[in-house]
Amino acid sequence: MGWLCLLFLLFTACQFNSTCSSSSNSSSSLSSGHLCHPDDSSALLQFKNSFSIDTSSDWTISSWQKAKDCCAWSGVTCEKLTGHVIGLELGFLRGKIHSNSSLFFLHHLKRLALMENDFEGSPISSKFGGFVNMTHLDLSFSNFSGPIPFQISLLSNMVSLNLRQDAETVATLSLDTLSLNRIVQNLTNLRELQLFGVDMSLVIPDSFKNLSSSLTTLVLFDSQLQGKFPESVFRLPNLRVLNLDFNKNLTGSLPNSNWSSPLETLGLSYTRILVDWHHLTRSLKSLRDLSLSNCTFIGSYLASLGNLTQITSLDLSQNGFGGQIPWSLLNLERLTTLDLSGNNYVGQIPEVESNSTGIASLYDFSKGQLVGPIPRHLSYLSLSENSINGTIPSWLGSLPSLDQLHLGSNQLGGNIVDFQSRSLSFLDLGANKLDGLIPRSIYELVNLGWLDLSSNNLGGNLEFEKFSKLQILGGLNLSFNHLSLSFNHLSNNTWPQLLLLDLSSCNISEFPYFLRASQDLDMLYLSHNRIQADIPKWWLDLGKDSLRYLDLSHNSLTGTVGQLRWKRLQYLDLRNNSLQGDLPIPPPSTYYFFISNNQFTGEMPPTICSLSILRILDLSNNKLSGKIHQCIGNFSQSLSVLDLRNNKFHGVIPGTFSKGNVLRNLNLNGNQLEGSLPRTLLTCTELEVLDLGNNRIQDTFPNWLEFLPKLQVLILRSNKLYGEIGIPETKFPFQKLRIMDLSYNRFSGLLPTKYFEHLTAMINLQEHELKYMGEGYYQDTVIVTIKGFEIEMVKIQTFFTTIDFSNNTFRGAISNVIGKLKSLKGLNFSYNELTGTIPSSFGDMSNLEWLDLSSNRLVGAIPEKLVNLTSLSKFNVSKNRLVGPIPHGKQFDTFENDSYSGNTGLCGLPLSKTCGAHQSPPSSFRQEGDLEHGNGFDWKVVLMGYASGVVIGISVGYLVLPNGTPDWLVKVVGRKQRRRTVEITQRRA
């Protein structure tokens, strides 16, 4: 009897112990031989045969054989008395699980773990609800999809339910309020609930109010929850792990009274839940792991951070915290993980100082105080994306457990320290001001899997073979330093795990031949180098089954490209080379295709129609000809940028733009396109830039474009557009328009005053930050006329505004309403047939930098109010019928004779004709001595800029980088072309 009791106790213990393995079952089996129930054995074999199996993994069912006891099979746990299968743990399977799967014949299952499989988007069958004895169910990361069936709630004995999903998979699991309510109400023994990545956007968060009081773990990471999260969940008496990270629309607040919680792990990153530091640190005495990235805080965190005495992992990244890092308030003795990245911290990282007894501590020299012990247990430290300066302290190179160090995007200078510890697997020092040579110690970090030293001032000649000991290197970025890299002695060296290699701007003059063996390469960047050669044939086979990103731009590559063989390519950049021949077409997987500024010829091949998921297509500045394929308009469901400017395309603009498209930039400037504008452009409601200049389009003004709500740039210059512009069709037309160029056409009639009244972005543009139009991989580019020169703005500042209606046949008076455009930088009405006077309201356009009204029929005097335009550096009213004295003072003392020539009635400086007594300028103008520093403006600067004959002057303000140096991404294309001047003059005569 005692023996039977002992056997029963052992059996019961095994039931509830997750460590009961198949090996122990086999060794403990009764001597009678096979224990496995034949029905279960048959069901398992049938289940095995319904999948393809990854035999390279140790965790596999490929060894299952019919002749052997199934209780000894890998991943199988049996009940010893009956031989029924009660536990199953399987991974690396591929195939679908159908509702008639033999898996559901295993009625005695208590533990089922099917994680890390690929079930190809299979739904979770309602048959899972038939496992009435189930206590542990883990279906995580196995590519299930569809709704979670309510039958899961029938598993009333459930202790642990894990349905975590991989965010990168296309298939998505979802859960609605009804099913969640049933799970919460029926699974009263539940202690662990993990719904990581499950779509719960339709769930009402109040459903979590009734969770079991025995719950210890709740993981709802990235589950698209929205609405107010119930405060009662934070008060669950046994809850130790709560993760709500990345539910960006989840609101609520933490309890602020009578709250004492055993929580050890709390994640609220990227939620809108209010965080009260005072109550959080007072209530969570057991907290070890705290994740509060990108949160909303109440009160100061500095005052109470030191209360977290048990904390070992702390993430306060992306919160905009400023000042110096509060090192003295951090639990440096216990911390293993610290992430303060993406804030506004300044100052230096503390150095080490030893006291009289030789004990080393961290010392903050800026504050003159000790801040605590060296954090010797740190395994992860991220201070990236701040404004930390000074040098990298030596103690960071000797931490014995440091695994990842992120210091990128700061202001750190000096030399890189020696890294004595060999534990580092990830080192990011990119985007700083580090100089000198790369220290030898880095080449000895044999466990390093990722190294980023990019965008510093590191120099010297570097033999790439120095990295030969880093055999597990997966990512290496040395780009944009002052290195000169060579690849001698590398014929036998490979990096078998290399996925990313960025050697941009490393003075490379040859294709790295060692890469021929890197068949798993995922990203390769070799831009801005000195490679002057044809693309070798072996290169086209490099990573043909793996490569997704390839950048060879800004080299001197020659010859033809040939057929591209990369099957998974998503990003291809061949810009700014000397490549020739037919246009190469990447695979259909491509999202971004840049091939501008080469010498490709011929027509678009029909295979371009296979690129149906393109987001950016840039073929500009080549010699391509033929017609634009109509299929390109069909790309607009994904296509954001279509840039075909400066080629030789002819025919009509495709009219196949469909509803729901996301086209943001359409640039066809500088081709030979004809016909009229397709009205299907109205479907492009995301359009911000429309540049159709320098073509042969023959149409009336497309006033229907005013319906496009986001249009900011409209360039129709140098076409055959004709007729009157008329009046708007909408109440608020072109509200966001900032650049409007209709020059060199055949427009006639009155100026469109009604349109000028509603150009909101030019009336009161609030944005003055240094921002450019464009998106991740593409900067918007246009050619505009500035102060008589055609300028290619390779980057368009978001507050740049200009109107150019020159070289048409507009007639009539200029309306005072134009004076409302206070944000306007440039206005050009030259070479028209305008009459009347110059409106005095022009003096209200305080931001105006150039004003060209030349070659019209304007009469009267130059308004004295224009002297108030202190930003004006280019002024031209020549060849009109103006009379009276030229205003004096401020900017008008910098303009020369050609600003006024052809107006016989004007007098005064700079003209030689003097004014009579009745024509003298008013005494209200400032005296010369007062002008130099009026309004903080130095007229000498403008005079120097104007005299240089190029666009410098005040307009450099929106062509300057943050460090104060000119942005030479602005090119002077040429002087303003007067190609229609003779034609207009003859017509007037």
UniProtKB/TrEMBL annotation:
Domain of life: Eukaryota
Location of the protein in the cell: Cell membrane
Listed InterPro entries: Leu-rich_rpt (IPR001611), Leu-rich_rpt_typical-subtyp (IPR003591), LRR_dom_sf (IPR032675), LRR_N_plant-typ (IPR013210), RLP23-like (IPR046956)
Name of the protein in question: Receptor-like protein 12
Cross-referenced Gene3D superfamilies: Ribonuclease Inhibitor (3.80.10.10)
UniProt keyword terms in alphabetical order: Cell membrane, Glycoprotein, Leucine-rich repeat, Membrane, Receptor, Repeat, Signal, Transmembrane, Transmembrane helix
Protein family membership: Belongs to the RLP family.
Leader sequence segment: 1-21
Membrane topology: Single-pass type I membrane protein
SMART domains: LRR_TYP
Domain Leucine-rich repeat-containing N-terminal plant-type stretches: 37-78
PROSITE patterns (alphabetical): LRR
Primary localization: membrane
